[in-house]
Amino acid sequence: MSDVHSTEYNFKLKDALLGAQMLFVAFGALVLVPILTGIDSNVALFTAGIGTLLFQVITKGKVPVFLASSFAFLPPLFAAQQGEFTYPQIMCGLVAAGGLYVIISLCIRFFGAGFLHKLLPPIVTGPVIMLIGLILCPVAVNMAMGHNGQVWLEPQIPSMIVAGVALLTTILVSLLGKGWLKLVPILCGIAAGYVCSLILDASGLTASMYNEFVGSAVDGKINGMGLAPWMDGTLISLAPVSQAKLFAIPNFSLPTWSWEAILYVVPIAIAPAIEHFGDILAIGSISGKDYVKDPGIQNTMLGDGLATSLASMLGGPPNTTYSEVSGAVALTRAFNPAIMTWAAITAVLLAFVGKLGGLLNTIPMPVMGGIMLLLFGAITVIGLSTLVRAQLDLLLPRNMIIVAIILVFGLGGMVLNVGITDLKGIGLGAIAGVVLNLILPCKDCNTENDPAEL
């Protein structure tokens, strides 16, 4: 067996290119979170790299996985973007979310993996994952239409055209792509939407539709929303590229203490915790090794948690194991964990290329909206599949009550004041689900856990 196909850690220079290819597979999803939430993309690259390296240290270089930006934590990042919290406050909550992983890892160490199964069975994690997708759906629709729910940021018709192109391309690549191409549908969708935007701008169609759109305004508003002062007849401006330095230190930032943000964010970490468990099982089945036993799920969970906290301490999005990269491992049968070391090193080096961050900032919002239309819906479907695969009878009163309360509390706007702050949304739904699962009597119900991927 060659060094690449061996599951033993073997760091060699000749594997650098393969490591860079692994980063390419993760790149589209990795930068998607910072682009959507206003975080510096170069910071996300840096924290993904050092997070992966830290994970490898904790797990003694035994698991071929790559850690990068998690979609599960988009709701609190959007809350910061909309002014409900400051970014440093949300980063404090995200640091604490990583701390929850650490606590879970300690509990697994002392009580065994069955502890996680009992605390977070599919009847809880399935609806919580669904809740994340459903709460984010309006954000995707707004972005695809060219507004944020309050102000028009781009003309409506050009926005919907490029969003449609990005969405259709992502779907087609997911269904028809082969080999490496099938692993990068998000990257292909972004590229197609970007090219479409360039064509609309160059042909003058964007300017024509912009003038018609602005001309339909009544008292400066269209459909009750005002127009952003920076909106013009183009979708893409290359000013961020020209203004960015070729090499620059990423825009790191520190968190500030906030109990409110901690209580808002930490319950959301329930879903990524189960995601991590599922990803470790998946990569184990791909490589033919039982990573749940060696290095142990308690150590992989600890590595994920510390990587998430470290990323948030530097102002980056929290980390999670990437299923796309696991797919690339399956395709190439490159099981050597050192390849992920090269992917992490490449991410860290690219983080200091300022022009790359500038280029990513030129991607039009509707392009990302088109991708999100599929992604947020897919998150909801993954939550639903968690319930289906566990073969739960949702007509049983206990199961029906837990699912109903999680969804209604999360989507209906229920607010619970706990003195320090208000619990609401995903956090309230998740906590309600965990508590109900622990206190409601369980008769003739299936509690077998089936970890989901998010």
TrEMBL record:
This is Uracil-xanthine permease. Pfam families: Xan_ur_permease. It comes from the Bacteria. It is found in: Membrane. It is a multi-pass membrane protein. One of its GO terms (cellular component) is plasma membrane. Belongs to the nucleobase:cation symporter-2 (NCS2) (TC 2.A.40) family. The chain crosses the membrane at residues 16-36, 42-58, 65-81, 87-111, 123-145, 157-176, 183-200, 339-360, 366-388, 400-420. Its main location: membrane. NCBIfam families: ncs2.
